[in-house]
Amino acid sequence: MTEKTLADRIGDVPEPVPPRHPDVARWRPATAADIDTILALELAADRVDHPTYVTPRDEIEDIFESPFYDPPRDTLLGLDAQGRAVAIGVVFVHPSRDVHVNAYLMGRVHPDVRGRGIGRELMRWEHERMLQSLAGIDSTRDATIFVYAEETDTGARRLAERRGFVEERWFTTMVRDLALEIPDIVVDVGEPGDAGESGGAGEPASVDIALVPYDSSRKEATRAARNDAFRDHWGSLETPAERWAHFVDGPHLRADLSWLAVEGDRVVALALGSVNEDDWVAQGYSSVYIDLIGVTRDRRRRRLAPAVITALLRSARAAGLDKAVLDVDTESPTGANSLYGRLGFEPTERSVALVSHL
């Protein structure tokens, strides 16, 4: 945090100049009526950028249903002369701003018209609009703008770098065959009187840790555990209750495949999995995607992470699924990528986060 506000650091930001390009007949803000048009663009881009998974429709719906987005000001849809969507840009500021201000530029260009300068114009508008938005936030917190791109999407990476973004963090997709043996994990629950990770010298450590499937009655306790577990993770902020409810009550989370480690009413570890059957055709196999794996900071190093992961793997195998998929920060402070490797996950694709610090 600095003494200067974001407005002081950014300075005067004029109204963003709308993009202009001969292959785009019209630029305008997107609306909920455009969801299927945007989805068609996203799916065309998915086949090139990351052919092993597809953008779910509800992810686009969220832009128009969530109170955290402002579509009239923070979206831009590019249409060609036939009315086909050829570009979409979305800017978003994370709602949790007490510790850090995180902002995101998200854009796609239809593969048929890439390499013509549309992406350059779109990213320019996104960046200008984001700077304008951040300058209006009364905060002295540090701020970071993020652009995420697949490793193979050299065009997007090059565009971000030309605007001053720097490649700072890499993420690896890892896949595990559920036909492989799943190890038995013995949880180290500690001993009474062992301060270890209990939070204070001489404070007894709990010995009553149970593995249970996720259910909605533990929704808030699981959110609290997620927020504690990810407090020291790069680029992570607290997930507010409304955004959390959208995820755990959404159409893809599979409670029957998701597991928690609990002490009484407190959740101390979680492995939450979702299923999007639209991915299966692209992947060539059925799968569960492990969205979140975390252990509260005072209960780490007790084998709780492998315990909830292997419980999830067994449930997914019993459900008849072929593989489990996850993404991991290659520099995770918990050494997660090494853990997943030991549990039989193999690396596949990579993506990169490009950042601009303000």
Structure commentary:
The chain has 358 residues and is α+β, with helices and mostly antiparallel strands. The chain has 2 domains: 6-164, 3-Layer(aba) Sandwich (Aminopeptidase); 173-350, Gcn5-related N-acetyltransferase (GNAT) (Aminopeptidase), CATH 3.40.630. It is 30% helix and 26% strand. The protein contains 11 helices and 12 strands. It has helices at 6-10, 35-49, 57-65, 71-74, 118-135, 154-162, 219-229, 241-248, 278-283, 304-318, 336-342, and strands spanning 26-28, 75-79, 85-93, 101-109, 143-150, 166-177, 210-213, 259-263, 266-274, 287-295, 323-329, 346-357. The longest helix is centred in the middle third of the chain and has 18 residues, at 118-135.
Oligomer: single chain
Tally of distinct domains: 2
Provide the residue-averaged pLDDT.
91
In DSSP terms (H or I, runs of 4 or more residues), the helix count works out at 11
Low-confidence stretches: 192-206
CATH topology of the largest domain: the name is Aminopeptidase
| CATH superfamily label of the largest domain | Gcn5-related N-acetyltransferase (GNAT)
Give the gist of this structure:
The protein has eleven helices and twelve strands. The chain is α+β, with helices and mostly antiparallel strands. A twelve-stranded mixed sheet has the order 1-2-3-4-5-12-6-11-10-9-8-7, sandwiched between helices.
